[in-house]
Amino acid sequence: MEQPDFFTIPSPCIGVCEANAKGYCKGCLRSREERLYWQRMSDGQKHQVMRLLALRRSKIRSRALAADEDFGTEAPEQMGLSF
């Protein structure tokens, strides 16, 4: 049995409304459909979208960490420079 929510689930929108190459919003990481239908979704659907957003964020962080490891510990703009 699903526990009802006592509070509405707020939109994850942060006001950065621009699509990336995969079609996800750069600000909140929702797809076009997820943004379009947010107000009509049930609480269960909104929770599922929030879980998907967490997965998308962790995937982006993993890629960023892997890219940082490729550069080593120095900042990319300072690599090879000694001043």
TrEMBL record:
Taxonomic superkingdom: Bacteria
PANTHER family: DUF1289 DOMAIN-CONTAINING PROTEIN, OXIDOREDUCTASE
Naturally occurring in which organism (per UniProt): Bergeriella denitrificans (Neisseria denitrificans)
Pfam families xref list: DUF1289 (PF06945)
Name by which UniProt lists this protein: Predicted Fe-S protein
Annotated InterPro entries: DUF1289
